[in-house]
């Protein structure tokens, strides 16, 4: 089976989506499931193109044994809708922006991360203006979501 190609999308591509990218890649590797997926991340905004992740995301990832410091921000673009099978927004606003950008016929690739991952119709809230404790909550949310997502893929692959 070809790997499922995931693109995680948030607003800035410095807090939520690069952390989600690092978590999914690492959980897949730890569980011997790396061949099931490829993963990347992008933002709907252009403010942080070329920037490393927010230090608070780098730090919370590091505390959980994951290095996301080499990732760099980029903006989602039309070619991404061909290049990825699943384009998952972290919140409803991200999903709405993705729907406006999607080429005709490829809107079906868009989803809300937690709904796709675990069937919960819930946003991953933007932690940008919050304190460091919000980043641990963010990490836990993303780890639970990525874990469910991998279980889903594993079931499908077996
Ligand atoms: P993210 O968080 O969407 O999780 O990367 C944000 C980062 C930066 C900004 C907004 C949200 N910003 O306005 O620069």
What topology does this entry show?
Layout (H helix, E strand, L loop, with lengths): L3 E7 L5 H15 L6 E7 L11 H9 L16 H4 L2 E4 L2 H10 L8 E3 H6 L13 H26 L1
Parallel strand pairs: 1-2, 1-3, 3-4
Helix pairs in contact: 1-6, 2-6
Walk me through the structure.
The chain is an alpha/beta fold and 158 residues long. It has one domain: Rossmann fold. Helices cover 44% and strands 13% of the residues. It has six helices and four strands; from the N terminus they run βαβααβαβαα. The chain has helices at residues 16-30, 55-63, 80-83, 92-101, 113-118, 132-157; strands at 4-10, 37-43, 86-89, 110-112. It has a four-stranded parallel beta sheet with strand order 2-1-3-4. Strand 1, helix 1 (16-30) and strand 2 (37-43) form a beta-alpha-beta unit. Helix 2 (55-63) packs across helix 6 (132-157). It starts with a strand and ends with a helix. Bound molecules: 4-nitrophenyl phosphate. The site of 4-nitrophenyl phosphate has 10 residues, from loops. 4-nitrophenyl phosphate is lined by residues 10-16, 47, 126, 128.
Distance between the termini: 10 Å
CATH H-level superfamily: Response regulator
Q: So what's the overall shape? A: globular
Mean pLDDT: 97
Report the biggest beta sheet as strand number plus sense, adding barrel if it closes. Answer: 4 strands, parallel
**Binned strand content:** 5-15%
**CATH architectural arrangement:** 3-Layer(aba) Sandwich
The CATH topology annotation reads as Rossmann fold
Bound molecules: 4-nitrophenyl phosphate
- The secondary-structure class comes to alpha/beta
How many beta-strand runs?
4
């Amino acid at each position: 089976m070809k790997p499922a190609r995931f693109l995680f999308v948030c607003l800035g591509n410095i807090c939520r989506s690069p952390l989600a990218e690092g978590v999914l890649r690492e959980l897949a590797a730890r569980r011997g499931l790396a061949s099931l997926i490829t993963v990347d991340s992008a933002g709907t905004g252009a403010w942080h193109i070329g920037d490393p992740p927010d230090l608070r995301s780098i730090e919370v990832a590091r505390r959980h044994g994951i290095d996301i410091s080499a990732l760099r921000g980029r903006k989602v673009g039309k070619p991404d809708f061909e290049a990825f099978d699943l384009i998952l927004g972290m919140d409803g606003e991200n999903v709405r922006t993705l729907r406006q950008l999607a080429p005709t016929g490829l809107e079906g690739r868009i989803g809300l991360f937690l709904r796709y991952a675990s069937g919960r119709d819930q946003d991953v809230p933007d932690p940008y203006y919050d304190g460091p404790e919000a980043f641990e909550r963010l990490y836990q949310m993303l780890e639970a979501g990525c874990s469910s997502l991998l279980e889903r893929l594993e079931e499908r692959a077996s």
